[in-house]
Write a structure and sequence with these properties.
413 residues, alpha/beta, four-stranded parallel β-sheet, 8 strands, 52% helix
Length: 413
């Protein structure tokens, strides 16, 4: 950490960073420096990501006076979905949630870089559709007294004079490669309102770079993981960073390769109790964990009609009752379902197939019994109109009908 940055933190400056990881790193470095100097107690460092700083400032400013309600990310996407679903362009869309996420991301870029979205002849079909959605989205926010993350910097800049609070009048914007026009306007507004605002960059260091080409991503990841292992074999305390541009799409692949290189014993169940020797900065969505994915699949299929892939997911899941006992028989059932050639399946048809027993092959009586109970429970659930507290119990009964979470003993993951 820069010594002058540590001094500013100790003097009560709030450090604003591009992301939460850097904010946490600065807090940790500051604490280590204070402990190394012999102190036994000290004020906590206020290091916040830009989003966290904006949210906290907005909450403080609107605590004593009415202000627009800040939407969460999930609420933003839900609003985008409703607007896109009502538009004529939604008819050919195959994946409405994906379109909503893309529109939200584009809206954020429009606000950050002060782009104009005129609806004029000459725009291609996608641009014209997005311009219309954006106009309706802005109108919905205004009509309902709402604000989203993309508009929050402008809102904070507008109320900067009223957002004063001891301990937040001195700011350091740290390690921003380049501030977008919207963020630059925010800094100028805060400075004009009497805030002391500085920009600092991390200390520069000499380094060397080499370039290597690989035939595919798998080979590249394995080469990088092997190099990381070699580095750690010499100084085990070395800190290594690996940047993966499309980490969200390749997270599982990266984790598998680095497990093989740095802790191959994780293939054994008992070894999964201890943490990995490396950290992936991108969090894993809860729905991506197989146990939770299976639970959500059970609830999704309870609607009645479901795709063949979802039926196969239910049949083959080890988190459904009897999944270990009937594993081979259920794999054969999945093969029979695929041979039917249908792209979707009803719950009743799935029960019928599970009850059947081809000559000379094992059947799936445990699955058939559970599917029958689950189908009856799902039929009752689809007729219900009830508050969320009651739905919680209904969901639990649907999961229990299929024997979730299965026969396996659970570990921490």
């Amino acid at each position: 950490m820069r010594p002058d940055l540590a001094q500013r933190i100790a003097a009560g400056c709030v450090v604003v960073t591009p992301n939460r990881r850097l904010a946490s790193h600065l807090q940790r470095e500051f604490d280590l420096a204070q402990a190394a100097s012999g102190r036994r107690a000290w004020p906590s460092a206020e290091c916040l990501s830009l989003n966290a700083f904006l949210e906290r400032t907005w909450a403080e400013a609107t605590r004593l006076r009415a202000g627009a309600t800040l939407l969460s990310g999930e609420q933003e996407i839900a609003l985008w979905e409703s607007i896109i679903a009502a538009a004529r362009e939604a008819r050919p869309l195959l994946n409405l949630p994906a379109a909503a996420r893309a529109a939200r991301e584009a809206w954020g870029l429009v606000q950050a870089f002060r782009l104009e979205l005129p609806r004029r002849p000459g725009l291609d079909e996608d641009s014209a559709a997005f311009a219309g959605w954006s106009a309706r989205y802005r109108a919905q926010l205004a009509a309902r007294g709402l604000i989203d993350a993309a508009l929050l910097p402008d809102a904070v800049a507008a109320i900067a004079k009223d957002a004063r609070r001891p301990g937040m009048r001195r700011l350091v914007f740290y390690a921003f490669d380049e501030l977008a026009p919207q963020s630059r306007s925010l800094l100028e507004a805060l400075a004009a309102a009497g805030w002391e605002v500085e920009e600092l960059r991390p200390p520069e260091s000499q380094g060397s770079a080499t370039r290597a080409a690989y035939p595919d991503a798998e080979t590249e990841f394995r080469a990088v993981a092997a190099q990381a292992r070699e580095i750690l074999a010499a100084p085990p305390a070395a800190r290594i960073g690996v940047v993966v541009p499309d980490l969200s799409a390749r997270r599982a692949q990266v984790q598998r390769v680095f497990d093989d290189a740095l802790e191959p014993g994780r293939v054994m169940g008992a070894s999964r109790e201890r943490p990995r020797p490396y950290n992936i900065s991108l969090g894993r969505p809860l729905a991506d964990y197989p146990l939770v994915h299976a639970a959500l699949l059970v609830l999704t299929c309870a609607r009645g009609e479901f795709p063949l892939a979802a039926a196969g997911g239910l049949v083959l899941s080890p988190f459904i009752g009897g999944g270990e006992t009937e594993a081979a028989a259920r794999a054969l059932l999945d093969a029979r379902l695929r041979r039917r050639g249908a792209i979707s399946l009803s719950a009743a048809a799935l029960v019928s197939e599970a009850k059947s027993k081809p000559r000379g092959l094992p059947g799936t009586p445990l699955l058939a019994a559970r599917l029958e109970r689950w189908t009856q429970a799902a039929q009752r659930a689809r007729r219900l109109r009830q508050p969320p507290s009651a739905w919680s119990a209904t969901f639990q009964s649907l999961l229990a009908a299929l024997g979730w979470p299965g026969e396996r003993s659970l570990d921490s993951e």
